[in-house]
Each structure stands twice: as structure tokens, then as C-alpha cells.
Amino acid sequence: MSTKISVIKIGGNVLDNADNLERFLTDFSLVPGFKVLVHGGGTIASEIGKKMGMEPIMINGRRVTDANTLHLVTMVYGGLLNKNLVAQLQARKCNALGLTGADANVIPAHKRPVKDIDYGFVGDVESPDQVNVAFLASLAEQGIVPVFAALTHDGEGSLLNTNADTIASTLAVALSTRFEVNLIYCFEKKGVLLNVEDETSVIHHLQPNYYAELKDKGAIFAGMLPKLDNAFAALEQGVKAVVIGDAAEIQDIAAGGKAGTRITL
Amino acid sequence: MSTKISVIKIGGNVLDNADNLERFLTDFSLVPGFKVLVHGGGTIASEIGKKMGMEPIMINGRRVTDANTLHLVTMVYGGLLNKNLVAQLQARKCNALGLTGADANVIPAHKRPVKDIDYGFVGDVESPDQVNVAFLASLAEQGIVPVFAALTHDGEGSLLNTNADTIASTLAVALSTRFEVNLIYCFEKKGVLLNVEDETSVIHHLQPNYYAELKDKGAIFAGMLPKLDNAFAALEQGVKAVVIGDAAEIQDIAAGGKAGTRITL
């Protein structure tokens, strides 16, 4: 049986609140076995950008990354947030190592081609088989926990702002060639809800047939559909399970408990 | 015979000039064997701080690091400079990995005790035998080149602003337990000068007796004395040679050529 790995992605609702973050990092440090943390940080980047006289430019919910914005997110994601997460995990005896996709060429990417919209210095990752899995495996052997900021690079000297969900799923798929991977997306709800108005209506287990049935009925909140489609795509590429749930329940989720929505084939 | 390593420290005169930096990174990527890069970045941090309405606070030539300044240098050293150096080295097929002393707990430190002056969040590194040499050795085996920003941590969750020269010498001493280490300080002159006014008066080789003699005569520029005392201290702790020279001559220096001032016991 291959070694288990949890790839855990956290977003703004964890990073933007000091108490939530403290609690999450304590829980994360106690998750047994090899684990990988992936973080964004858009809200904090926007706040710091404002101090520097920059307004975020958004198109279709995505940040447009001009040269100044790339500098900003490199400072905030790669420096401020990433290195503080590392220091705070070290204080919890979790041997964290901060990374971007550029470091050890872990996640090669390319600048998104311009079609209707020029997103600027935004990265689309290359196929998961380009990920430097050998390096990540050597970290696992040493008990080192990688913490990824949402940045990649083009191999030609430029960093690229990259969607953190995509980084998490790319890493999860790549690691599936050697490990049994659980991909966990922490978000602001307890899981995927049957009824958006009812926090207790969490779907505990989602499989392809049931998902198709719910989609046909229009029973799933439209905003969740891309996340779920991506989850099933990751499963088809070898990830063992995807769980969408609340960061406050990360220990139960990582232990394979009842919390969150567990998605499997 | 043990494997050779070059630990190379660059300062403002390389980082602050795009042409110098491009040239240096190309030369650095061509230095054969295992190598470690250490960088500062004070001038750029001060410039970005000004955009955010912050004025640098200096006492006795050292930056006082209040909480906001710690955020600033974490963004600039750990993010902007470090990750761009990594991306630019990757473009030169040098498999760089950006690090602070917090990552993989490579360089433990403690906050400098307050005596006459409170330097704030400034780190004094623990003894070199606390450095995580096993991790650095595993990088060497994988052909990965660590790039260190001048930050350490206290093991209790706080990052610490730390002198880049000290980080370089601490790493050099620590690595000397397993490798044959050359410690190279790049600065704005071609080497230690016998006559500060004369750029051609480089001392090519400095050994303890000659150094004592020059010191007695008052023949060495006062500003160089702490750097040279530190160099001899590193040699006494196992470093093979310390070279002080011009970044533009890094290839000759790393190859053991005539450039720079070579300091040995």
C-alpha cells in the first residue's frame, strides 16, 4: 500500500482572520503523515496594494496581473504570507518549507495566452507530469512539509500569478503517481450543500451518478459546479478522494471522518 | 577528499542594478559544483517602504526592525527579491530554491537581547551546529542550489531580520563539517585594498601574520576590519578559504583564480 498524502488548500476565510488561522495551523500541524499546504491571499494583497496606491483590477472574478501587481503578489504571497505560515508552523514543531512553483522548478507553467482578455502575468500550469515529484518525495522522506504560495514561473525568468485551487489539484494529480492522495479544499461552508440556505444540508458523499442526478435537477449551487467538475477531473487522473469542507474541521476531514463533502469515483 | 561548496554573498551593488544582476546571475549559474547564494536587499526594501509611507530607522548603520519593518523585509527579501532571483536562475538552468532560515528550520536564531539599543525584530543566529546541514546536503545531492534571503526565525513563530554576511558565514561554518567550503563575499571593490584610493592595490592573499602586520601599521581601512575579523573567525571554525572580491569576477574567484582577496590560515 502506498503512503498517504493530504494536499490541503486554504483560502481567504482562514488567512484573513488571525484567530481562524492560529486554530487552523495548530490543527494542520497535528494531521498525521505527509501533507502539503497551498494558500492564496488575494484579500491581503489587495489591502497592501491599496497602501501602495494600487487598486486591484478584476475581470470575471480573476485578478488581472500587470507588472506592478505581479510584484505585489510576489511580495505578499511568496514573502509575507508564505514565510509567516512557515514560521508559525515551525513554532508548532511542523517542519514547514515555503515554496512557489519556481523553487526547484516544482510547477512549470506558461503565461496565459491572450484571447478576449489579457490577464497579464497569470500562469496556466503545464501538465501534472511536469511537476518535480522527485523533489517533493525527498521532502516527504525527510518529514518536511511544503507550503505553496499561489505562484509559478515560465522557465524564462518570469514568475506568474496562479490560481491556488489549480496548484492544489495539479500537485495532487502529480503526487498520485507515487502516493495515495487526498485533496482537501477548505472553504467557508461545512461542505457542498443540497440547499444553500441550510448549513446543515451537507452532502456527505458525492459520486459520479449522484452528481449527474443532482446536476440534472439543478440542485447544486452554480458557483460550486466548476469546483466539482475539477474535483472529478482530479479523481479521474488518479487522486483517491477530494474533500470540500470547513477548515475548522480539518482534523476530522484528514482522518477520513464524516466532516465535509467527500467526493470519490 | 570532500566535495567543494561555494557560499556566495551578494549585496546592494549587485541587486540594485539590473545589468549587474543579469551578468552576475549568468556567471553564478556557470560556477561548477554545489553552491549557495545569500542576498540582502536593504536599498530596495527602503524604496518600497517609502511607497508605503515608511522611513527606514537606522542606528549605528543597522536597520531597526519594528513590526511594520519586519513585514516589509519579509515581503521584499523573502518574496520579491528571493523569488525573482530563483525564477531568473531557473531561466539559466540553475535549479534554484529560495529559502529563509525559517524554512526547514535551516537557521535557528533568537531575537537580539535589548542592551543600549532595541533593534526590534533582529535575529542573532544560534551556533552553526544548529544549522540543518542534513537538509542542505540533500539539496546538494539533488543538484539544487539554495538561495537565502536575510531572514531567520526564533522557533516561536516570529521571523527575524538578520545580517546577510552573518547568514553566509554561519552557513559556511556549518557546511564545513561535511564539505570543503569557500566563502565568497562580493562587494563593490576588486578586493581588500592596501590603499583605499587605489583600486589596483588589491591584496591578493591575506594570512594571519600579514593581517596582524597590516593592522599594526594601520594600513587597512577601518570599515574592513570587522569583515576581516569575521573572515578569520570563519576560517578558524573550518571554512577552507574566504574571498572578498568583485561580483563581476565571480567565475575567476570561484575557480580559485587570482581575482579578489583570498584569506586563508
Automatic annotation (TrEMBL), chains A, B:
Annotated binding of substrate, by residue: 41-42, 63, 161
Keywords, in A-Z order: Amino-acid biosynthesis, Arginine biosynthesis, ATP-binding, Cytoplasm, Kinase, Nucleotide-binding, Transferase
Subcellular location(s) per record: Cytoplasm
CDD domains, A to Z: AAK_NAGK-like
Pathway the protein takes part in: Amino-acid biosynthesis; L-arginine biosynthesis; N(2)-acetyl-L-ornithine from L-glutamate: step 2/4
Superkingdom to which the source organism belongs: Bacteria
Pfam families xrefs: AA_kinase
Reaction it catalyzes: N-acetyl-L-glutamate + ATP = N-acetyl-L-glutamyl 5-phosphate + ADP
The enzyme's E.C. designation: 2.7.2.8
Enzyme class, spelled out: transferase
Positions marked as site (Transition state stabilizer): 9, 227
All residue ranges annotated as the Aspartate/glutamate/uridylate kinase domain in the record: 5-244
Record-linked InterPro entries: AceGlu_kinase-like_sf (IPR036393), AcgluKinase_fam (IPR004662), ArgB (IPR037528), Asp/Glu/Uridylate_kinase (IPR001048)
Alphabetized GO MF terms: acetylglutamate kinase activity
Family: Belongs to the acetylglutamate kinase family. ArgB subfamily.
Purpose: Catalyzes the ATP-dependent phosphorylation of N-acetyl-L-glutamate.
PANTHER family: N-ACETYLGLUTAMATE SYNTHASE, N-ACETYLGLUTAMATE SYNTHASE, MITOCHONDRIAL
Protein name: Acetylglutamate kinase
